[in-house]
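My current task is to audit a protein record that another person submitted. What it holds is a sequence and that sequence's fold in token form. Thanks in advance; the entry in question is below.
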Amino acid sequence: SQVTTQCMSVLSKSEDRIIKLINTQTAAICNLDSQSVAYSPSDSRLVQLFTIPEGKEKKQYMRVMDTVNHLELLSIELTGQSKHGIIYGLGAAPFGCLSFSHGEGHVMYCAEKKIKSSGYFDVDLDWDNEEKIVESNVGEKFALTESWGENNFDVKNPVLCMVDISTGQVTVVDGLPSGVSPSYAAWTPDDKGFVFFGLEDKPFRLGKAGGTNRYGKLYYYDLKSAESIVIGDTAAYEQPTFTPDGKILVFRRRAADEPHNATVELC
């Protein structure tokens, strides 16, 4: 049988406008719903996140390439692991994140939390087991969950996740504050944790894409203890980033009770 293929290439453009070919792959032709790409700190590795529609469902794949030796380090279907829901692409700012750890052994991304819910007439319900009935969230299957709106209609209950490049194992981060949506997540220079701006879900989720005055707190998450520590009091934060030497955390901050497009402070 004959298979139609497509060729996909990743290019880089330098400051002097020289375009270089990073890698090229040939695969069976498919319709990509979206694609996100990110480089490692040394630019020696590249991660690609593909979203491919399949009927009413969407399947998402991650591919990690060694751009120096032109080797494929990882190629997995993330959907099949059933650890979380849909992964947000880089277009779902400020929630979407796709970034290598500084050691370049892990990739962090943000996805929808997988919440089990059942209808009253689902055949697999065990009504004699009270504990399982509580865990199945009976009656919540078709409940309306508020989203963050403004180009983020798929973002309702975001969670941060990590992939081990050597094994392909996905880990969903535990211990994030309840009622908080993580955004602008960034690795710490020692890879022992990450910082993020935790947006408050209550009293309601207002659109964030066009609003810089949404309130929350700045957090540091420690991977070893699985604890979230508040490092910035209630305000509106954006783009927490570490300086190249890894000694200083820089971010934009403003009061959360002021109008849109107010002046921000560089901290």
About this structure: Residues 46 and 134 are 43 Å apart (CA to CA).
